[in-house]
Amino acid sequence: MNGTATATPAEATTAAVPSGEPAGPLVGTGTMVRFALRRDRVRLPVWLGLLTLTTAASVASFQSNYPEPEDRAGAAETLRSPAGIAMSGPEHYLDEGYDIGAMTGHQLLGFFALAVGLMAVLTVVRHTRVEEETGRAELVRSGVLGRHAQLAAALTVAAAASLLLGALLAGTLAAIEADGLTAEGALLYGAATAALGLAFAGTAGVAAQITAFSRGATGLGLAVVGAAYALRSVGDVGPTALSWASPVGWAQRGYPFVDNRWWPLLLLLALAGVTAALAFWLSTRRDLNAGLRPPRPGRPGAAASLATPLGLATRLGRGTALGFAAGALLLGAMLGSVLSDAEQMLEEVEEMARQLAIEDASITELFTSVCLSILAIVALAAVVAALGRARAEETDGRAEPLLATALSRTAWIGGQLGFALGAATLVLLVAGLALGAAGAASTGDASLLPELAFASLAYAPAVWFTGGLALALFGWFPRATAAAWAVPAYAMGVVFLGEIVDLPDALRELSPLGHVPSVPAAPLEWTPLLVLTALAAGLSWLGVLGVRRRDFELP
Amino acid sequence: MKRSTNAIEISDLVKTFGRTRALDGLDLTVRAGEVHGFLGPNGAGKSTTIRVLLGLLRADSGSVRLLGGDPWGEAVALHRRLAYVPGDVELWPNLTGGEAIDLLARLRGGLDPKRRALLLDRFELDPTKKGRTYSKGNRQKVALVAALASRAELLLLDEPTAGLDPLMEAVFQELIGEAKENGQTVLLSSHIMAQVEKLCDRVSIVRQGKVVQSGTLDDLRHLTRTSVEATTSRPVAGLDALPGVHDLRVEPVEADAEGSGVTSVRFSVDRPAMDRAISALAEFGVRTLLSHPPTLEELMLRHYGDRHNGDRHNGAREAAER
After folding, report:
1. Domain parsing of chain B, residue ranges
2. Closest alpha carbon within chain A to B72
3. From the CB of residue B3, how many other CB atoms can be counted at a distance below 10 Å?
4. Its membrane topology, per UniProt (chain B) (predicted)?
5. CA–CA separation, A335 vs B252, rounded Å?
6. Residue B108: which of A295, A319, A405 has the nearest Cβ?
7. What class, spelled out in words, does domain B225-293 have in CATH?
8. Are A515 and A462 in contact (CB under 8 A)?
9. Which overall architecture, per CATH, does domain B6-221 show?
10. Which of the four pLDDT bands, split at 50, 70 and 90, describes residue B306?
11. Which residues neighbour B133 within 8 Å (Cβ) at sequence distance 6 or greater?
12. Within 13 Å and on the Cβ side, how many CA atoms surround B217?
């Protein structure tokens, strides 16, 4: 009777764990995977489709822009500059006949590493920490579900998406007829992208255990992705050891289409395995809904500054803003620290430098202006994130009791806007100071510090414009507030891929950064900056008007 | 400035969300100094009404006066004179409860620290915990302390005690009693009948975006039936023929110690028909008689009971009840 698989419910209640029924920590993982796939049935196909299509489109633009080997050799020489290397991949890709295959490995792998990292982080956090923070995890875990099932399902889904993306990329690249675009290279390229996805899913799994806030977990996960990219940027220009400390560096050093080395992927797989195991272990060291650090009691009352609109916005947004500032600081310092390497590299190709230099700009100036435009993207993201908080305050119901006090809508949103613009400007300045200070230290030219700090502020009007745009969306199309993320995303696409796919000026100028003079390489022009500032003011005014007149959306 | 005698005057208020008509010609009057109960099922439009009063939603049509002003146009000035407690309080995860209380109270125009301390004590609330670690009841307490510490002229409370335990519910009722003594006006949206019966001077019952009944509890009871339970020594007959007698149930009961046959009878009766019904009943030898006014619950059920029958029957039913 007993011990058969078909125990009746009455028999089952006699034992805490009925025999014959699975009871491990992974019970229910399959169900959770199917559930996650159901929830992401639009999201993941869009990610995969978009990344595959942009890869194919980029390769097509290589083919049309650089049809002949001579064209590509020219491109290779252009890229053999610190800025070119920092934005693409290690120099070795350029060494033997820069064919379409080598271009793809060199130009696209690093950039798409950022994209696949973003996909992995968002997917993992969405199915782990967000579920806990909203209280849904509690409900789900009260069912027959093993302790590790949710994390296992999140990692499985992110891993499956990465593997599928790898397969799609390998298939797509292998199907394109072009110089050097070999089948083995395509397979390695796809596998490297997939392995990057696995590794970043693992690190995101760890990030989701550390902090109790989903925003913090996403930030931490993305910081890892960003740091990996920055490390390889700097390592490829300067000390190679830094590139070997970066997962993105490992993937690029497989040299798909050039050397087709497979073993660096083992490093990525090892990282994925270790971080996943660490995530599972950490999850047993904490309570549901808690971070690793137990919550501590805080102030029994509020500081006087909290009860002002700006004070409140600052208190709510300062953590995120500090994260962006820290990111800008690190990135700026890393880029600045390779300035002397950049100069050295240039002396070796003095001839090319002369051809390349626009007007009277030195190569250092060219490099630093590219660095500044990368750093400006961090500030764009900071301003959009800060204004996104206003929307979250509204839909989560926290703005409602505030607006039931003597706080006017104008003051409320004014506080949010003031903080967002101020914090993002500060992020810019921090980036410029870090770039200048590290640059001054590495080249011994102290004048770089004030020069670059000042130059970074040239990007402020573009940042304000983006803030104004986000506020206008919030005022008039509140559901589309998150669409403002398109600005930093597009700016990133233009900065990283614009040069190599030879983007027309009209498309380049769709990004607000496209209107900022490339200081210090180009002279400072005030007109575009004043126009951007005026537009920022107009959009902000429009946004406030919208916020004042529309219904509040309440939970 | 002369104080208006009515704290809230709403007439023919309409608010639609897309195709949904959340408020469909709602009328509501709350007199200054009274505790006004706002009753209705989920989705009847109570929260929407309060949010229009707060100027968070703009009315499509109708007129709304709050403390003599326009809640949309003069929101900020009016908000200095009122305090609001939502039914589902969301706190900032990284702010402590104490910070949230101070934030809300100072934005309204300041608070009395002694009163704040007293309220924290009475609600047994620890202000040093972070918002994300509070339970639902404790989040509710944070909003209650912030609102009650303010001594605002008008308290707008939207199911304020959801999640509070019975002891805290009692504290809340004491505090509302004190607020009334201090001359504060209270609009209390609620589901808890005992709370409303205990606290409220007047009640409005809202249903599908309209106020269907408004008045003192006594007024409302006058409009409805009294329940009668009796036992008689002879079988009751013919009572159902009387106008105004409803839901008649007659059941024989086992013979009691005195040996005579006994009948149990229950019915409800409209107020005007009471005299005739009792006279008729007396003919059958009344042995016990129990009569009680309708509870608020019965009032509510009478207004919402027909929900179960589907809304298309409402018109006919309401006509039949006249």
Report:
1. 6-221, 225-293
2. A549
3. 11
4. Peripheral membrane protein
5. 96
6. A405
7. alpha beta
8. yes
9. 3-Layer(aba) Sandwich (3.40)
10. low
11. A295
12. 20
